[in-house]
Amino acid sequence: MIPHYIIFWAILLLICGFAWWRGRKDERIAATACLLATIVTVVVIPPVAERYSKPDLVLLGIDVAMLLAFTFVALTSRRFWPIWVAGLQLTTTMSHVMKAIDPHLIPRAYAAASIFWSYPILLLILVGTWRTRRKVAEGLL
């Protein structure tokens, strides 16, 4: 069986590549933010034994930076999909607040809350890129 992180990296690289190849400014900014955040997370994530046992301020910082990038795209875009991406990232960012409020929150629940929305965000970037490309081809953008 293929490890989940290999599947995530494959999906991430394929969607980011598609967004850079066929997307416009909004799609490229969102894809770049996702790739950079993933790389930085891999570099700074704590060892497995410590992961998600307490609020992680470094991961919170990465998630806030992502939220700011996605919010910028949502506020400057003429497209609708960036609003959804920013909203999902807000949900991810709030997982750190939940852990800070309730330190006894099960680490597995904290991990799930902070990781889960990565896949729908990537899916929205994919769909946004595909729809933007289609609208450009039809002369609507």
Short description:
The chain contains 6 helices and no strands. With 141 residues, the chain is an all-alpha fold.
Structural overview:
It is a single chain. With 141 residues, the chain is mainly α. It has one domain. The chain has 6 helices and no strands. It has helices at 4-22, 25-44, 57-76, 81-101, 107-115, 118-137. α1 runs antiparallel to α2 (25-44) and α4 (81-101) packs antiparallel against α6. The chain is globular, with a radius of gyration of 16 Å. The model has no long low-confidence stretch (mean pLDDT 93).
Any chance you could write out the topology, listing elements then pairs?
Elements: H1 4-22, H2 25-44, H3 57-76, H4 81-101, H5 107-115, H6 118-137
Helix pairs in contact: 1-2, 1-6, 2-3, 2-6, 3-4, 4-5, 4-6
Cα radius of gyration in angstroms: 16 Å
Separation, N- and C-terminal Cα atoms? 43 Å
Return the domain count: 1
Could you say which overall geometry the principal axes of the C-alpha atoms support?
Answer: globular
Q: What is the helix tally?
A: 6
Q: What is the helix/strand order? A: HHHHHH
The share of residues in extended strands comes to under 5%
Uncertain regions spanning at least 5 consecutive residues: none
For the secondary structure, the number of strands is 0
**Structural class by helix and strand composition:** mainly alpha
Mean pLDDT over all positions: 93
Overall helicity: over 70%
